[in-house]
Amino acid sequence: MMQKIGFIGLGIMGTPMARLLLKAGYQVNIYARTDVHVKPLAEEGGIARQTPKEIAEHSDVIITMLPDSRVVEEVMFGENGVYEGLDEGKIFMDMGSSDYANTQRISKKLEKKGVRMLDAPVTGGAKGAAEGTLTIMVGGNVDTLEQVRPILEVMGDKIIPVGPVGSGDIAKACNQMLFALNLSAASEVLALAVKAGLDPQVLMSVVNSGSGESFAGRVKMENFTFKRNFKPGFTTDLMAKDVDMALDMARSLQVPMKLGNLARENIRVAQNCGFGSDDCSSIVRVAEQESDVVIQPFADNDK
Predict the structure, then answer these.
(1) What are phi and psi of 57, to 5 degrees?
(2) What is the pLDDT of residue 1?
């Protein structure tokens, strides 16, 4: 059992994930650019390190939970970066949403040091990160995956091997694009229902029992939109980043994404309306503004 874990990136997702590892008894070395993110976990037993290099030096498995490939590159190869502190036999695991081609390039560089890499992005949102119920899609060597499986099982209840290094990032990009499409479609359909005089919660009880069911409707509408709660579990800006990544991949492979581009435009409008730092369910407010309705259970309107 590899006991010493390095965790870099303590945001909405990273902090609860690292907290679960601490509770499971692992030694967790932690690093973030600002002390405000490090302090709470340090008070719970996390060992604060001053640089990514120090994280690598004191850890068997190094995990990054960062916004995108650019930041991963900087943390890995910048001054006092992870790469400088790596030794043969260690494992590097990127659990954020990254570009698959960049992940493959990093993996090849790490191989020269005898370091194995997995890309293991997640889905399930902040709630899943806090409860340890994330779905983790893992790209990389199966034997390496089995070595870190106990670590992953602390953070997720579904560990899915999806192929060689980079495959996790491909799966995540495709998943996020489909989620964005479902969320955009659900927003428009609910606006239509309200405009026509149907209670949106009644509609969702039908949809969630039928062929139109989706995570976007079942979770985002019920737990965010209907409650008028747009506190971020997964922000609109992060959704935009993930969709852009999927569209970039599609362009490089010459795959047309007609609906995907429409979903991206819908997200852009939400960002322009000031909803970028709110939960991605805020996309529904674009449909509300355009249709002059409020998507809220009718019973709530009577209060």
Answers:
(1) -65, -30
(2) 53
Query: For residue 87, what are the CA distances in angstroms to 113, 114, 183, 230?
Result: 7, 7, 44, 44
Using a 10 angstrom Cβ sphere, with 0-12 exposed, 13-18 middle and 19 or more buried, the burial of residue 8 is buried
CA distance 291 to 273: 15
- What is the third-level CATH fold of 4-163? Rossmann fold (3.40.50)
Cα torsion angle, 102, 104, 109, 113, sign? positive
The confidence score (pLDDT) of residue 35 equals 84
Strand spans (E) along 95-155:
116-119, 122-123, 134-139
- Which residue ranges in the chain fall short of pLDDT 70? 1-2, 301-303
> What's at 41, amino acid-wise?
L
Q: How far apart are CA 143 and CA 156, in angstroms?
A: 19
Query: Rounded CA gap, 201 and 183, in Å?
Result: 16
Residue spans per domain, the chain: 4-163, 170-301
Full-model pTM = 0.92
For 235, phi then psi, to 5°, come to -75, 160
Query: What dihedral do alpha carbons 137, 140, 144, 148 form, nearest 10°?
Result: -20
| Enzyme catalytic residues | 172
Q: Show the tokens assigned to 257.
A: 């994404």
Q: Residue 229 in 3-state DSSP?
A: coil
Q: What CATH number belongs to 170-301?
A: 1.10.1040.10
User: What pLDDT shows up at residue 195?
Assistant: 97
Interatomic CA distance for residues 7 and 21, integer angstroms: 10
Could you tell me the two tokens for 281? 């369910």
